[in-house]
Q: What sequence folds into this?
């Protein structure tokens, strides 16, 4: 299983989620979505396996008070909450584990990460409230 690291906050000086070791080609900058002014989202949707684990690294540490209070969550394409497990690996790293039976093939999901989870960006109103990372489950992964 391939792993990606999402790095918060310092990518292009904006505190944006970035990707390391991505199987997608091209840049993975986050851009504003005009219909969702309080979020930033990726330019493209990642293709992932049904048992994808997301690893998120915070270079200045994380706000533990938001870790289990909707600081990180996953929704399906109908805005239903997906039961993922959030594991704190160390003071700087979180892993988002997939649902027990994995994500469903052919479906698109949305990972949301609250800005204030990153200690470097707590209450930084120049940034969106959440980062949005859409991903699609590909059965060939």
A:
């Amino acid at each position: 299983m391939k792993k990606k690291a999402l790095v918060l906050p310092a990518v292009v000086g904006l505190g944006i989620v970035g990707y390391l070791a991505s199987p997608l080609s091209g840049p993975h900058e986050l851009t504003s979505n005009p219909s969702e002014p309080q979020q930033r989202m990726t330019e493209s949707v990642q293709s992932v396996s049904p048992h994808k684990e997301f690893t998120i690294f915070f270079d200045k540490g994380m706000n533990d008070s938001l870790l289990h209070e909707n600081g990180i969550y996953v929704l399906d394409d109908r805005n239903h909450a997906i039961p993922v497990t959030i594991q704190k690996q160390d003071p700087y790293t979180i892993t988002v584990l997939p649902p027990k039976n994995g994500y469903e093939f052919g479906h698109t999901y949305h990972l949301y990460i609250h800005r204030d989870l990153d200690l470097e960006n707590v209450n930084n109103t120049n940034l969106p409230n959440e980062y949005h990372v859409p991903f699609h489950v590909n059965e060939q992964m």
In short: Confidence is low (pLDDT under 50) at residues 1-37.
